[in-house]
Amino acid sequence: MTELALAVRSGDRRALARAISLVESHSSDARALLADLWQHTAVCRVIGLTGAPGVGKSTLVDRLARTYARTGRRVGVLAIDPSSPFSGGALLGDRIRMDDPDPRVFIRSLATRGHLGGVNRALGGAIALMAAAGYDLVLVETVGAGQSEVEIMSHADLTVVVLMPGLGDDIQANKAGILEIGDLFVVNKADLPGADLTVREIRSMLGLVDKERARLPITKTIATSGEGLDALMAAIDAFGRSPQEQARQHQRRLQQADHRLSEALAELVVEDIRTAAGAGHWQAAVERIAGRSIDPEGAARELLRPPVEEA
Ligand SMILES: Nc1nc2c(ncn2[C@@H]2O[C@H](COP(=O)(O)OP(=O)(O)OP(=O)(O)O)[C@@H](O)[C@H]2O)c(=O)[nH]1
Ligand SMILES: [Mg+2]
Questions:
Q1: pTM of the predicted model, to two decimals?
Q2: Is residue 109 lining ligand 1, measured as CB closer than 6 Å?
Q3: Of residues 286 and 204, which shows the higher confidence score?
């Protein structure tokens, strides 16, 4: 193992921060690091929290992290794109780091800008690093605004969908996105009017998806005061306890591994073909596609199987 890998394993926070930066910047050192550490990343539960902007995800994650830490667990927190315009660009990480440097909590935000599909890979890497560093629980906050909530499913053991009262129409609009990915639902801001109505709405909409989903837990919380947190944590703990659930969890981990294998392979193939083609051929293909003289798939096929030169 490299020195950095050993330092991460030993729980050195600065090493972990540095390693996550490597992963985030897609540095080639990150690959070797993750390869070294992969075998040490199994014993970690990953919980994704997703939901519309401003529903209180960060407040909830903050409380969950502190509460779990008090029970002796080491908790990693990853916030993706925490600088949404709704929170005025305040970083969850900054907020916690300022007033509570709990040694059992490690918070980090991942930028979503740049790199297409890069967030997902950086997220997988960051989770693996936290697991290797001995964090037994990783909480991931993503804004449920399209792609990211689906991405979280390829990493989380459990996805918590956070909603708030009065979001009925939004749920309708996002039905496919939100109702089908949640393992557990939270109506936060239960101090506002309409929380019970929202719970009933979610319940009936889940019923429309299928009978089994209609039985998923829906809890109410007030993240700002901590009310309802016990019930939420009990629901999280209960999730995956039954033999059927464990079989399903295993299935999910296999699906995730399948997904990541495809992802890794796609990336390697692109790199190999790009190198084999050489910069000139690659650029020529790019220009022909842009000039509409060949379609992207046709050009890709040519690069995979260069036309045999006539003698
Ligand atoms: N009344 C009430 N306000 C809450 C509750 N939970 C959070 N808030 C407030 O809601 C606002 C948004 O909370 P955040 O935790 O930043 O919400 P978020 O979902 O992380 O927001 P984004 O990251 O911007 O999507 C803040 O002003 C919180 O103080 C709650 O249970 N009740
Ligand atoms: Mg937030």
A1: 0.86
A2: no
A3: 286
